[in-house]
Amino acid sequence: MTLPSYAMNQATFSEMYERWLVDPLFRPWAEMTFDELELSPGDRVLDIACGTGIVARVAKERLGDAGYIVGIDISSDMLAVARAVAPRIDWREGNASALPFRDGEQFDIVVCQQGMQFFPDKHAATAQMRRALAKGGRLAVATWRSDDEIPFVRELRRVAERHLGAIADQRYSFGDAAALEALLRDAGFHGVRSRTISRTIRFKDGAPFLRLNTMALVGMSAAGKDMGDQERKRVVEKVVSESAPALQPYSDGSGIAFELSTNLATARG
Ligand SMILES: C[S@@+](CC[C@H](N)C(=O)[O-])C[C@H]1O[C@@H](n2cnc3c(N)ncnc32)[C@H](O)[C@@H]1O
Predict the structure, then answer these.
(1) Is 190 helix (H, G, I), strand (E, B) or coil?
(2) Choice from 17, 19, 72, 78 to test ligand 1 binding pocket (greatest atom count within 8 A of CB)
(3) In contact, 138 and 266? CB cutoff 8 Å
(4) Number of domains observed in the structure of the chain
């Protein structure tokens, strides 16, 4: 989920992200990533663009106290939630293109889940990942496929575009697996591979997802950026109500379910 600046300034956005989105939308991929990377006791794990920290938390669940786990994010609001949920993990505020390392600090596992698409300088961020990874360590980077390939989110974007004009949704802006692989190879990683993974995402209640998704779309649109708070809220309400028919085909009596696809690139240091 991209974090529109107006929403980032509302203390509750990160809490809403954690409460409504993390378990259904982000946890399953974090589990899958660590199934693939196979953590070992004592592994040092770095979660870049950690948000409210689900990747680091899954690592902690698997490693217990036998792991050294650090989560870094640019947003103090997201980190505040991460700290509240898992106070024993080392959460740090920092930019992916200038990570706040301690002297000589390196990691056996570096993961960046749905963060790369937001980094303005992807080469700098990838160089930092390379710097962070110990020799022989393993990297995993996940970025959603393009929303043009994901019918449900494409449909919701089209409803929003009726009010806002064309929206370049940053969340789905780095779906090209070949570009992701090239980025990692250019940074000097070895054994770069990627694959597309699709799975069904379920929300017991589709309403909070729809609202947060709409807030993100409005916040990302050029028109939305120019709006005052009141007008933005009005447009969010309008788009939410007009999205109901788009939700219908995905509703199955116990919430909503839709297919979502990500690239998962892995490499070695
Ligand atoms: C969609 S969230 C993903 C969060 C988390 N990895 C997860 O799976 O739930 C994207 C995160 O990227 C962070 N982010 C965006 N630009 C960043 C940057 N330049 N450096 C560090 N974090 C950044 C945002 O603050 C946000 O928490």
Answers:
(1) strand
(2) 78
(3) yes
(4) 1
